[in-house]
Amino acid sequence: CSSLAIGTTTGYRLFSLSSVEQLDQVHESNEIPDVYIVERLFSSSLVVVVSHAKPQQMNVYHFKKGTEICNYSYSSNILSIRLNRQRLVVCLEESIYIHNIKDMKLLKTILDTPPNTTGLCALSINHANSYLAYPGSATSGEIMLYDGNTLKTACTIPAHDGPLAALAFNSTGSKLASASEKGTVIRVFSIPGGQKLYEFRRGMKRYVNISSLVFSMDSQFLCASSNTETVHIFKLEHLPDSRPEEPPTWSGYMGKMFQAATNYLPAQVSGMMNQDRAFATVRLNISGQRNICALSTIQKLPRLLVTTSDGHLYIYNLDPQDGGECVLIKKHSLLGSGKTEDNKENDLQSPLPQSYAATVARQSTVPSTSTMPGYSEDGGALRGEVIPEHEFATGPVCLDDENEFPPVSI
């Protein structure tokens, strides 16, 4: 949630999200056309790129030095890539490859996974809990939870009746959110046990395709966006069990009676009664476009970031106390000259030409430089790290561990 990577027909761009008013471009590359996957390792100089020209090949670069660390080719098209400070995961339609990110060696191949045409998978950004989640079935909403550190299956979670559409871990890897292709119910499970903690209802009027599911860094909020014009933000909170004694009113008496009655209802029915509505919402001026969301703190205030596949970034204010409708405060153009645009009614009426790649926004656990001793945006480029050029490393790929892989304290 502190940086943004986009793939375009001409290459890729990396931005820093430290200000509302200004969008800082960190890097732009036009060496590889038609980039549809670009993943940056937090705020380091390591970036993984896949293009439509070679959809079966993954290229790993140190973009500050302009060198290629290594590249790997696979048996079929790469559908998604996930990475943290410990693991790099490559997802194909029917197999998953797990690499050790420090030397890029292949540690594990999970073969014969259920057909996963969208490359749906999630990897915890906390490298101490390198859990990997992916669909365990093509016909039901079963989640396979895999421990990327021990390289063993942790558990299977029967999350939904229908096939999965979205998966997301929180920042510590202790919770996993999921949604099915229907998109009406979002569930949150404890990790690694797989117990259901929360259930949120996005809506019952129509089925939607949830394209983005993301926790806030403090795990207090969960955001879901789809191909509709509405973005939902849910608050993860349980009502306290020990409530103060209510005055003996008729409404208070009926409330207690109703609460007691739910204990005798079937689990499915009582679960429906206990579901929470959205804490906050956003009404986009567009629908039908793929978009990616992030919940971030920018300039000490909570923000909702929405990036759309036509090349725009929208920044909204989020009221963490009262919720409600989020207010659009800035719109940035990610293509062209990088100019910013103010909030006008006709801003979204003339989208830019579609590119091959959809915009990608990923979470980051890297705090600001003021709170991270030893961290520098230089990415250690001045520290003389060992980067093999155009060949696979015989020893560990060193991106200056102190600067490029700062310890995460959560």
TrEMBL record:
Record localization: Preautophagosomal structure membrane
GO function terms (MF aspect): phosphatidylinositol-3-phosphate binding
InterPro entries xrefs: PROPPIN (IPR048720), WD40/YVTN_repeat-like_dom_sf (IPR015943), WD40_repeat_dom_sf (IPR036322), WD40_rpt (IPR001680)
Disordered, as annotated region: 362-383
Keyword ATP-binding: no
GO terms classed as biological process: protein localization to phagophore assembly site; response to stress
Name under which the protein is recorded: WIPI1 protein
Organism of origin: Chionis minor (Black-faced sheathbill)
